[in-house]
Batch of 2 targets.
Target 1
Amino acid sequence: MKAKVYVTLKSGVLDPQGKAIQHSVGLLGYEGVADIRQGKYFEIALDPALDSARARETAERMARDVLSNPVIEDYRVEVE
Amino acid sequence: MKAKVYVTLKSGVLDPQGKAIQHSVGLLGYEGVADIRQGKYFEIALDPALDSARARETAERMARDVLSNPVIEDYRVEVE
């Protein structure tokens, strides 16, 4: 069982890393790039013995308590 | 128009950061976590004037040439 966790900065939070990438791709000649924001992505392999509800609960708890900073970041969890 | 780029380490490549997180969640008492791998995630806002094919082409090229290191990383692009 596999969980994917996406962590992104909340919309009001400045993202200097994203801005630096946006500036660089502009210098490199890419056109039409209005904004870039960088986030984090985690692939979590869970014990196949866990049932689906238990796996989602573990992944959600891990995303909220360990993988993201709820003050400045949002997270999204997919379990498959 | 929005593109999402997911960059992950190729499967044979060691991921010390993922291993460190896995070790930590083990110490914190999370059970059933077999493996964690960390990747990067980019949200790219593209000029709405670009048509869909052009937007995908720009995002693919950016993912391949700027956002990922093709020696050790894979990337995936979604345009919506």
Target 2
Amino acid sequence: MAVYKKIEIVGTSKVSFAEAVKVAVAEAGKSLRHMSWFEVVEQRGSIKDGKVDDFQVTVRVGFKVE
Amino acid sequence: MAVYKKIEIVGTSKVSFAEAVKVAVAEAGKSLRHMSWFEVVEQRGSIKDGKVDDFQVTVRVGFKVE
Amino acid sequence: MAVYKKIEIVGTSKVSFAEAVKVAVAEAGKSLRHMSWFEVVEQRGSIKDGKVDDFQVTVRVGFKVE
Amino acid sequence: MAVYKKIEIVGTSKVSFAEAVKVAVAEAGKSLRHMSWFEVVEQRGSIKDGKVDDFQVTVRVGFKVE
Amino acid sequence: MAVYKKIEIVGTSKVSFAEAVKVAVAEAGKSLRHMSWFEVVEQRGSIKDGKVDDFQVTVRVGFKVE
Amino acid sequence: MAVYKKIEIVGTSKVSFAEAVKVAVAEAGKSLRHMSWFEVVEQRGSIKDGKVDDFQVTVRVGFKVE
Amino acid sequence: MAVYKKIEIVGTSKVSFAEAVKVAVAEAGKSLRHMSWFEVVEQRGSIKDGKVDDFQVTVRVGFKVE
Amino acid sequence: MAVYKKIEIVGTSKVSFAEAVKVAVAEAGKSLRHMSWFEVVEQRGSIKDGKVDDFQVTVRVGFKVE
Amino acid sequence: MAVYKKIEIVGTSKVSFAEAVKVAVAEAGKSLRHMSWFEVVEQRGSIKDGKVDDFQVTVRVGFKVE
Amino acid sequence: MAVYKKIEIVGTSKVSFAEAVKVAVAEAGKSLRHMSWFEVVEQRGSIKDGKVDDFQVTVRVGFKVE
Amino acid sequence: MAVYKKIEIVGTSKVSFAEAVKVAVAEAGKSLRHMSWFEVVEQRGSIKDGKVDDFQVTVRVGFKVE
Amino acid sequence: MAVYKKIEIVGTSKVSFAEAVKVAVAEAGKSLRHMSWFEVVEQRGSIKDGKVDDFQVTVRVGFKVE
């Protein structure tokens, strides 16, 4: 039967939460193959000079173990 | 006094979480009248070829019972 | 040692969750200085005529106490 | 073996949380038979002119499937 | 220093959640002394003939250990 | 777009949870205008001489920022 | 884009949690097509004469909306 | 009105989670009468020599107070 | 197979959370044998004259049933 | 003092949740030594042709760092 | 009846979590009177050069409203 | 934009929770560079001969991916 692992990764973006997820997944893809899904675990961000500076999304990425 | 029901529905979008919510609400609107609010319950998505393939948002939609 | 306070604020936007967060932070910035980060606590929204009317995001904003 | 379904319904009352539960269950009873139990999921309410205007209770109602 | 224990007890009432809590605390008082506080853990109830039959409240009761 | 703040307040009552919520909201209303909704966060209480002494309800009160 | 709905259903079994899930899904399948996945929400059961009488599993079943 | 108590007990089994629940309930039955239901609180287990050694299930057992 | 019970106990200390745990476990040890592990459930404390007066830790203590 | 790491892994089985845990642990054992315990984090599964197709269990596996 | 408010504050310390709580409470005491209790909400910290740099504790502080 | 990973690690100490966190972070630092923060996930410990034997803290450690 299939087995999957999950790792936790935090992406950041100046634009949106969706963009931050894409950044996280793209980075994870540099060292992982067979990524299959992600789950949003936490959404936060930093503030600078009274404005949102970036969006930070923690995702769990699931990938198939060969 | 007013009574509401809630149903749970999952919308998907290639673009963003907000878009996925709109898709879910629009679909729910085909069979429900008097929808009043939504609550985001879960955010996840699928990955294909090392990139985010779609965003999936589970929302609870509340609507008034006549 | 540094001390921070957190307040809870709800921003709304017709466009997206990210936009609603920016609205909340900008409003908080009118009365607070030294804001440092935000945490998303809840995401919901209103529906009107069968369509998403606005996105509502509750954020906790952390700021340094001088 | 027995099978049950659960639906989620929100009752409101000017008086109390218990009353709001009764309203929710009575409404559910118009279209469901064999209701067996309820679980309180959320308690909130609206405020008007500086006073509690109503109590809102979300309950999950379980009923037997024949 | 003071030490407390907590036990978990379920009270039921035909009338309200508050009443069910009183029933649970009164029962606990038959075998415990020095009860100090309670915490509501869960609220549910049974339904009979399409109406709320009773309210059930699970409380954790804290009492001082002599 | 509209912005809301939330504060957390604890009301107490000898009678019921609903009463405790009313006490909390009435108190909050002394210093806040435009209160719009409340959310129940926690329910507990104190015990004295083996009987419930009071009901304590923590509510988050949301109010519009002008 | 694809849209899914979720319903909540409770299966029971004298044998195991896995069996109770199968019962719930089989029952749901009588009225739903295109069921795609389930999520376990709660596991409990009844006791009779000092022994486990049955296993009860609440699952959320997701199915595609055509 | 009826009053119930809950205790928390951990059963272990070499075979399955269901078996571990049965072990826990059977043990509880040695000192308790009128047990009525159980709720699964936690599932874990130990590993030995790279294989699952046992399944451990924490259940809350509810029993009627006479 | 082994069976364990868990009880919930609150220790207090003027010094630290770790100290409060030790106080709780030591107290539990007066009436229990074969205690095996503890789990921190809640951390709070009282304040007096603007300073922390004590640290209160609720722990669940697991012990083997013979 | 001893230090442990935890990884998250998803096992699948056609038969039961217990079997899916065994599959996950066995797979983890191919690359890890000194595995000591597992914690069940999530239970779900897929449905095909109106029947449960497989059981999926996410476990956190703890192992000693040498 | 008595009414309390809660605010959320983050204390930091180079030494321990207990110390960080004291820092938070002491700071809160500069602007609040009648503080009565605190609840630990979150524990985290920063790392610098491979070592724990500080402990950060978020506490909710409850104080009586006169 | 910056990307972070999080791993989960359990430190143990005979002395305190803070010490256990330091142990965990120090161990993680042997194989990771650019560690930036930690989050406390769970606090438990073992008991031996009726006394706390050690404190165990599970932390998530975040580190920058280069």
